[in-house]
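Hi Y.,

Following your request, here is the sequence exactly as I used it, all 265 residues.
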Amino acid sequence: NMSTTQKVSDDGAQTQSLKPGKTDGLEKNLDKVTLNGTRKSKTTNSWIRKFLATSYKYANLIVLLFAVIQGYLLTTDSTEYLSMPARYVTLLYLLSFITHFGTQLWMTFISGVTLYFGLPRHVFGQVQVILFPVYFLFSSIASMTTLITWLNHPQRGAEDHYKQTLSIVLCFWMELVILIYIAPSIVSTYSRKTGIEEEVGVGKEVGHYNPGPLRSSAQYKAIHWKFRKLHVGSTLLNIVAVICNSYHFTKMISILSDGFSVTPS
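Below is the corresponding structure, written out as tokens. Let me know if you'd prefer a different format.
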């Protein structure tokens, strides 16, 4: 049995701390908890887990498929689009981009920060496990829709058109890579990490991270740092995607101010 003392943190929540030299029992318990990685949090949404498992299994095939599709779109003769497309195409372009960009800003700068400082850490994690894959699935679809509809509009100079197209393409790939390669590992690692924390009764703190008795567990720290590295990687790629859309947003301002027009390149 694990020997512990109880102490009350500043926010009134109870946390556990091990007495010096009493870590062996904890490590043995964690061996049972994480044996073959079978002990996972029960809070992970089942359909999300199935979706991520399937997308991860066929990740390389998905990448190849979209590479072929985008290759075809980008090599199509641009002289076909010397006049304005049907209005619904322009509507779809504006709707897909504006909705996507707004969702990016909300999820990146408002939702996550607000929930982290307003909910117990495990509750916040449960919400993020659901929102995270859905957000990047929607973002990938929206980016692809924006690219297709953007390419159906007339160019306003070859160099500028190339830069704008590149920003949309880069945004799409950042989000797709997160969705099919990183998100499955993040959800799996987080679920395993949370399962350990639930076993020893930590994770109820709000607005900060306190592993309690797990602080001295090498096994737990390895899982935690794996999760942190995956999370930082996805965050950096997401920021790149936001920058790409911010760049294209400046172009949209110009388009809405001046209207689409054909300029000889």
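Residues 42-72+85-258 form one domain.

Thanks again,
Q.
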